Amino acid sequence: MISSQASPSHNLPLQDAFKQSMRRLAASVSVITCAFEGQWHGLTATAVTSLCAEPASIITCINANASLIPALTASQRFYVNLLSCEHVAISSNFGGRLKGSERFTEGQWASGEEGVPYLADAQASLFCEVEKAIAYGTHIVLIGRVRDVRFSEQVSPLIYQNGLYVGAAPLAAAP
Predict the structure, then answer these.
(1) Domains of the chain
(2) pTM of the model
């Protein structure tokens, strides 16, 4: 069944129509971090999802031109830090507002497995080893084998949708 509310996008080039469609895909916000030669690196990501529980693994997609890629490729270890609603400023910092090590000036950062930084008050932080990296288009698709997990009792995900940060709220129960 075709909804009458959907408007055709045939007049837009495919890439523009695709980008507009993806703005409607709400995604949890994470900060991917790694360490290499004593330096901490990180970026904000929304293309992160679980792959499977056995073995525990995740997928994240990162632009191949991101400053994090050389350090991550060399170290092969990273944390996925799942942000909460209180972490909007941290997301903005890692999303490009700040550069390099300045990104770590806000938040409760700690040194975890093998010196890799993690956000101590994140909803969850998953320490991963790169299992596989696949180049596709403009991005690198990383499969990370989860080696350690830290999580809080708080469940308040920071979500990015239609160019805005939003939170989640439970819907009314169905009758």
Answers:
(1) 29-47+67-131+147-158 (2.30.110.10)
(2) 0.89
Question: For 52-75, b where at least 16 C-beta lie within 10 A, e where not — what string?
Answer: eeeebbbbbbbeeebebbebbeeb
Residue spans of the chain under pLDDT 50: 1-4
Positive or negative torsion for Cα 89, 90, 91, 95: positive
Distance CA 157, CA 173 (A): 20
CA distance 90 to 92: 5
> How far apart are the two ends of the chain, measured CA to CA in Å?
25
What is the predicted pLDDT for the residue at 3?
47
Q: What is the pLDDT of residue 22?
A: 85
Residue 102's φ and ψ, nearest 5 degrees, are -60, -25
| Helix and strand counts by DSSP (H, E) for the chain | 3, 12
**pLDDT at position 58:** 98
